[in-house]
């Protein structure tokens, strides 16, 4: 049984920018199929949904206003994930999907159970380690600036 639609192809994962929005600081990563980085219109649409999602984080939630956004210009669809750290060691993760030919038509997909693809998981694993090293293991003096300065750039 063939479970893949073709041979594996590496994709670039690139740090695009440190983005600030309404007091939040987020690393923005790009992942792209057959492009060096995601299309600009997808990156802009990702920032719009991220800003909307972050505006709805309850004031009662103990968070640090830091996290990351993944913008994946995929082969069969576009994927955006918005993640932030809260309650010391918890990652909040929200997923949006759009058709490849309509990058701005992002639909909230978290309730479907979709978490991430293998490329998106690499970003999440990297960010987990960065959080451990700069915040959790530095419990006397967590260094959020150091966390934000550690960035992933690789082809996987």
Helix content: 25-40%
- H/E order of the elements? EEHEEEEHHE
| Average residue-wise pLDDT | 96
- β-sheet strand percentage: 25-35%
The number of helical runs is: 3
Tell me the total number of β-strands.
Answer: 7
Shape: globular
- Helix/strand-derived class? alpha+beta
Q: Return Rg in Å.
A: 16 Å
Major beta sheet, strand line-up: 6-5-4-3-2-1-7
Number of domains: 1
Seen as an oligomer or otherwise, the chain set is single chain
Supply database-style keywords.
7 strands, alpha+beta, globular, 3 helices, 156 residues, 7-stranded mixed sheet
Give me a quick take on this structure:
With 156 residues, the chain is of the alpha+beta class.
Q: What do you see in this structure?
A:
The chain has 156 residues and is α+β, with helices and mostly antiparallel strands. The chain has one domain. It has 3 helices and 7 strands, in the order E-E-H-E-E-E-E-H-H-E. It has helices at residues 40-55, 118-134, 144-149; strands at 12-21, 24-32, 63-73, 78-86, 90-98, 107-108, 154-155. Strands 6-5-4-3-2-1-7 form a 7-stranded mixed beta sheet, with helices on both faces. Strand 3 (63-73) and strand 4 form a beta hairpin. The longest helix is centred in the C-terminal third of the chain and has 17 residues, at 118-134.
